[in-house]
């Protein structure tokens, strides 16, 4: 290669110095840090190259393995051909909001006015990108649980705000210690983002915890955003909505997703519901960001929300798979229990192997398990060292699930993992 062309490839474009500080400024694109999921991808590629005949046992994927229910796809098929669905839907159609209101009433006994207390979103992820725009000025704080879903924090920082991390520790039952937060932090806090059932810890919460949050929000004057993405994957009782808590409607919103509970990950549908003034601020920001989800998709999602048998089936499948995984891992030295919710099992990472390998953190254990045994997990080192196993692996039948568990047991047995070696 000539010097001239390699110079050309490495030269910065004239706009390199124009990138905003929030994405790295003039250093944008030059970061050499490799992110967690890229490391996992690389380890998977190496495992497949080194052992082409050994199938990966993939507990890393965090996406539902099934298509949306046939009845929902049928509605989509019909609606897609109707001319009245072709245009911008702006802040959404009444049909979807009304279905969401019926859903909230049936599932949780929560009464909402679909016109003022519910607004759709194109999946719940963009809602976490938009809600900070409603509240955060430079210097304001968003409190977020860690480990957790980071989007609201990223956007808080984009607006010049700060993130105060609430660690979810095993010794506190993976609930944040709200009494440990300094008063100065509460004074500057505008948003508190919670997520129950919690990803990745699998912990659900109690009415008492939510009552405490409502009281604190009123006392310290902040807004609560509760992420209910996994709410229909609750296993330890009836799913609990934050809005069931007396007074919750005065202090915040809950964000629901069609992704996990309805096998509709790629369809991009969810809704924000709760206090009308917050819903309206969200709708204003959203209206300046997108033009609404395709109306056919909203109508198909409305049909899904009206059919409780769909989330019941999905819940039963992931519950069964989690029960099998818990039993299998416990036979291999892990100490885990059935999670309260989500399709994740979050369990203490091994510290090494009987053969003398040691892992300083969960990330090392993950790489070792992928490369040596073809077992894929996701490491979490934010608050203790944990591995996350997802039961969204592809298995067509229960017999396939059982065979996968047998193979998992065999390989983990060969790995000879130890804890606190
Ligand atoms: C805790 C949590 N919140 C929100 C989301 C976003 O879901 P979606 O944008 O598909 O509604 C996810 C997806 O992984 C999640 O795990």
Automatic annotation (TrEMBL):
Positions of the Aminotransferase class I/classII large domain: 56-391
EC number(s) given by UniProt: 2.6.1.83
Names of the cofactor(s): pyridoxal 5'-phosphate
One of the record's GO molecular function terms: pyridoxal phosphate binding
Pfam family, one: Aminotran_1_2
Protein name in the entry: LL-diaminopimelate aminotransferase
Keyword Iron: no
Keywords noted in UniProt: Aminotransferase, Transferase
Taxonomic path: Bacteria, Pseudomonadati, Planctomycetota, Planctomycetia, Pirellulales
Keyword Transferase among record annotations: yes
Organism: Novipirellula galeiformis
């Amino acid at each position: 290669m000539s010097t001239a062309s390699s110079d050309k490839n490495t030269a910065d474009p004239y706009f390199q110095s124009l990138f905003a500080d929030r994405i790295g400024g003039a250093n944008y694109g030059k970061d050499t840090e490799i992110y967690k999921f890229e490391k996992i991808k690389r380890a998977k590629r190496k495992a497949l190259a080194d052992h082409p005949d050994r199938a990966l046992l993939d507990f890393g994927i965090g996406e539902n393995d099934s298509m949306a229910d046939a009845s929902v796809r049928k509605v989509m098929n019909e609606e897609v051909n109707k001319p009245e669905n072709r245009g911008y839907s702006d802040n959404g159609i009444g049909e979807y909001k009304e279905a969401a209101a019926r859903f909230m009433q049936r599932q949780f006994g929560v009464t909402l006015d679909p016109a003022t207390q519910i607004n759709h979103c194109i999946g719940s992820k963009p809602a976490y990108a938009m809600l900070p725009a409603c509240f955060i000025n430079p210097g304001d704080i968003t409190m977020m649980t860690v480990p957790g879903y980071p989007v609201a924090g990223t956007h808080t920082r984009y607006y010049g705000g700060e993130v105060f991390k609430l660690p979810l520790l095993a010794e506190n039952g993976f609930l944040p210690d709200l009494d440990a937060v300094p008063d100065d932090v509460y004074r500057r806090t505008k948003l508190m983002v919670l997520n129950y059932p919690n990803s990745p810890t699998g912990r659900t919460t109690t009415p008492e915890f939510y009552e405490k949050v409502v009281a604190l929000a009123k006392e310290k004057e902040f807004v609560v955003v509760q992420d209910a993405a996994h709410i229909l994957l609750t296993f330890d009782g009836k799913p609990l909505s934050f809005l069931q808590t007396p007074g919750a409607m005065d202090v915040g919103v809950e964000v629901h997703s069609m992704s996990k509970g309805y096998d509709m990950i790629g369809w991009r549908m969810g809704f924000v519901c709760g206090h009308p003034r917050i819903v309206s601020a969200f709708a204003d920001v959203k209206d300046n960001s997108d033009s609404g989800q395709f109306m056919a998709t909203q109508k198909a999602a409305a049909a899904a929300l009206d059919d409780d048998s769909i989330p019941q089936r999905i819940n039963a499948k992931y519950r069964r798979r989690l029960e099998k995984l818990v039993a299998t891992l416990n036979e291999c030295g892990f100490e885990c229990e059935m999670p309260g919710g989500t399709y994740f099992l979050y369990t203490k990472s091994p510290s090494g192997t009987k053969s003398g390998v040691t892992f300083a953190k969960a990330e090392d254990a993950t790489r070792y398990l992928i490369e040596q045994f073809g077992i894929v997990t996701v490491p979490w080192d934010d608050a203790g060292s944990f591995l996350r196993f997802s039961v969204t692996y592809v298995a067509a039948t229960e017999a396939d699930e059982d065979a996968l568990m047998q193979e998992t047991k065999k390989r983990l047995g060969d790995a000879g993992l130890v804890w606190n070696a």
